[in-house]
Amino acid sequence: MTRWPLPLLLLLLAGPPPAAPAPPTCYSRLRALSRELTRDFQSLQDEEPSEPCVKYLPALYLDIHNYCVLAKLRDFVASPQCWHVARVDALKDQVRKLYTLMNSFCRRDLVFLSDDCSALEYPSPGTTDLPGLHARE
Asked: CA 21 → CA 16, 56, 135, distances in Å?
């Protein structure tokens, strides 16, 4: 019978190392950021009723699969309401980041499935979570 060195035997008994999760893709980053922005905008509207300009900001419901989202992002950043309100400035910075990712870095990873601009004004529940697209994350 062959004697195994103790470190090698322990290594074999421990099993294979756990698989590292796949690094985030450009597409998964876009999805996560769009969900985060939609949630943060809703939170801003819920928590800042004392700030009158917040209710006049353009609605920010984001569906990265809708081509009109690019115009929606531009409109939100260009809106003159709430200048110098810290939470709105931070949100606008995040919106600029999403726009840059969509228009430059992730352009090849993104597929637009519609160009229904009204869907971004009055979204149906789950607009940003389209069925069958989770596998790419």
From this structure: 15, 42, 14
Q: Which two tokens stand for residue 22?
A: 């796949």
**pLDDT tens string 113-136:** 888 888 887 766 554 444 334 333
Distance CA 33, CA 13 (A): 41
DSSP annotation of 44 reads: H
Please state the domain extents for the chain: 23-119
Cα separation, 85 vs 40, whole angstroms: 14
- pTM for the whole thing? 0.69
Residues 6+ apart with CB under 8 A from 29: 101, 106
Q: Burial level of 67, CB count in 10 A (0-12/13-18/19+)?
A: middle
